[in-house]
Amino acid sequence: MVHHIWDDFPEIQEDLESVRSIMISELSVIHPEVKEKIIAYMEAPGKYLRSGLCLLLCKSKTGHIPEGKLYLAAYLETLHLATLIHDDVIDEADSRRGLQVMNKSFSNRIAIYAGDYLLTYANEFLRKASELLDVGKEEQELGKHKVVERILVGELAQLMNQFDCQVTMKAYLKQIKGKTATLFALACQMGAWEKGTTRRESRLAYRLGQSIGMAFQISDDLIDYQIDEKNSGKPRMQDIQNGIYTAPFLFARETDRQLIDHFQLEEKKEWSEEELRAFYNRLNQEKAFEKTEQLIKAYLRKMKEQSQELLPPDEAEELVSFLFEVMNRQF
Q1: How far apart (Å, rounded) are the C-alpha atoms in residues 95 and 104?
Q2: End-to-end CA distance of the chain
Q3: How far apart are CA 113 and CA 61, in angstroms?
Q4: Which of 239, 210, 226 lies closest to 303, judged by CA?
Q5: Between 20 and 30 A from 205 (CA), which of 22, 59, 255, 278?
Q6: Hey, is 99 helix, strand or coil?
């Protein structure tokens, strides 16, 4: 079942079910237990936000969704799932979408290979989409971005910055621009693309998705502090325990010079519930969460301006309204 965020867009919701069916039905013959686990991920109630945005932008611009766009959406969603499986290995997570993660069900090595398989599997959807949409070599460079490279560079940057208490806000924003915003950017660009799309329109759609992705990831980082596992699908305050220092921590560090020493932030630190509560309260006192919300709003303002430039007024308003609702999510 596709997430309820799409309830107001029944056509998109129906097409996302088709996207999921494409992803599942065309899986190659691999180890049956691994295949079963991948299908369980795909069938879990995911948000399908990147693939949904691709379809929503397509419908907003052209009024319909051709079959080729369903394959582009499957491409995006499969790439995203691959990164999630890799993320869970790095984060040593226990659950994802209400399921035990791949690396806990099997091993880190199997999870990494499964993620690598999905990265390759995704390319088949891109090839089929290009055929169905009749994408010529001389046209927009649909799907020719170094998207996987950019995502992995962002993921690698986050891993290299792990447990680095001196990581800068600039480095943090750069890493999420790669690990998250790239796929959102590609989703909007692929959704808005059609025969005759100008280079300017294509770049504007890409930047729109980038703004959405930045706002979404920073919002996700805020949720890590504020929403419990029942609603978010992962343990609360997991990032700080894994040495991943995000916007709330970075804002608090600017005004609280004793923060790092007081909580003895170091690798392999075992956090008690009392310490986590105290850390949260300390960040709250420094207005770190308010500052993070302001940063999210800055990206949302940019997103609103870009959508109004790219789409007809009614469609832009509908998209903006939907995305503001997503950013205020409790999941």
Answers
A1: 9
A2: 16
A3: 38
A4: 210
A5: 22
A6: strand
Spatial distance between the Cα atoms of 152 and 183, rounded to a whole number of angstroms: 11
What kind and span of H or E run contains 275? helix 273-285
pLDDT given at position 140: 45
d(CA 23, CA 50): 14
Whole-angstrom distance, CA of residue 73 vs CA of residue 67: 10
**Torsional sign, CA 246, 169, 183, 192:** positive
What's the rounded Cα separation, in Å, for the pair 245 and 80?
Answer: 22
pTM of the model as a whole: 0.90
Residues 313 and 203: their CA atoms lie apart, in Å, by 19
Residue 26's alpha-carbon distances to 110, 112, 252, in angstroms, are 21, 21, 47
Cβ(260)–Cβ(243) below 8 Å: no
Q: Which amino acid is at 226?
A: Q
Residue 177 DSSP one-character state: I
Tell me the one-letter amino acid at 209. G
From residue 183, how far is each of 149, 209, 281 by CA, in Å? 11, 8, 34
Give exposure, 260-273, as e/b (b: 16+ Cβ within 10 Å): eeebebeeeeeeee
Cα 155 from chain centroid (whole Å): 12
CB 92 within 8 A of CB 199: no
- pLDDT at residue number 46: 82
Token pair in block for residue 128: 């089929």
How far apart are alpha carbons 246 and 309 in whole angstroms?
Answer: 31
Measured CA to CA in angstroms, residue 206 lies from 135, 183, 200, 224 at distances of: 18, 10, 10, 27
Q: Given pLDDT bands bounded at 50, 70 and 90, which one contains residue 233?
A: low
Q: With contact defined as beta carbons under 8 Å apart, do 73 and 19 qualify? A: yes
C-alpha 297/C-alpha 238 separation (Å) is 24
Nearest to 47 by CA among 153, 187, 149, 169: 187
**Residue pLDDT, tens place only, 93-120:** 787 877 888 899 899 999 999 999 999 8
